[in-house]
Here is the input.
Amino acid sequence: MQALYKTIDYIRTNYPDQFIIADAKRGDIGNTSKMYAESFFGEMNVDSVTVAPYMGQDSVTPFLGHDGKWVILLALTSNKGADDFQYIKDPEGTPLYQNVLRKSLEWGGNADNMMYVVGATRAEMLSDIRRTVPDSFLLVPGIGAQGGSLADVCKYGMNSKCGLIVNSSRAIIYADSTENFASVARAKAAEVQKEMSAYLK
Amino acid sequence: MQALYKTIDYIRTNYPDQFIIADAKRGDIGNTSKMYAESFFGEMNVDSVTVAPYMGQDSVTPFLGHDGKWVILLALTSNKGADDFQYIKDPEGTPLYQNVLRKSLEWGGNADNMMYVVGATRAEMLSDIRRTVPDSFLLVPGIGAQGGSLADVCKYGMNSKCGLIVNSSRAIIYADSTENFASVARAKAAEVQKEMSAYLK
Here is the structure.
């Protein structure tokens, strides 16, 4: 934990504009989610936490209402197992991930305090998701190690203000395991950043 | 974390037969779930971890296959928010929590490596759940602070070998906030234990 706090402190001090995401995928009974929220937003001082929706409203809302902090709710994840439950349709034909999006909007979730995880490997579903949450940021993992297409993500997911946070983790942090790590990881990150900026023109 | 390791070490040394549950509700892409499993089962040396099913198979299976260790998968939780998604029926009328139970049996989950969380506040659903997982242990929170009925849990959830782990946390750990905590909490735990043993006769 000490290394984690030191890393966050380093970023806060040297790069104060960076948005820090704790990709912790929490979600528990209200009492426990409240404690998690205090730990992440207070003690750890990150800007956002990813939250799993399975336990519903009272497992998610304790993460809301922390000034300037964000909930990033799992909607449609990038992994293969997303197929198991997230696409299951209700009798009206609405898939679970859409029910998660819709319900979250009834919980006080809005474009200023909640974003959604939508995997880059599910880019073809982004148009459908944009109809439900047109103004919200989407956190998009799955570029890089998981093989998602940045072109498709931008084509289907971008809104008038961009509205995308595209994440590449393993392609950068596992780019090199020698003493050259810092420079190789930097080059890899710069490469992704360059590709992204092309789509923002 | 230091206090946590010391507590686990104390229990392992003094009460080696106790079954230790990390009620951590993890669940992430395979690579990350694998690391969580190594952390909980290896480094932390607990017997079981609660796992959230939203991300599907590859988020759960890395927790399986650790000799003598258990996955406790969220099926039907005790909190109010369980109503939001866990009861949503598919077009064949099967609710999500049943789809979770059924799928988990295809992932290598069996009565020797996987249990399920079923809230005591959902006791009326236990007969339905027992049809799908007749031999599995069920971890039942919601007795005590959350108001579930132990009588109902036993009536609907017990199998020929009992098959229940009934959990009371807040009613015990928040039983007293003075220096009398140890004795008051002990008395409260003994009270629940006595009530339970009556149902086992």
About this structure: The domain at 51-167 of chain B is CATH 3.20.20.70 (TIM Barrel). Chain B touches chain A at residues 1, 23, 25-31, 52-60, 74, 77-86, 88-91, 96, 99-100, 103, 146, 170 (CB under 8 Å).
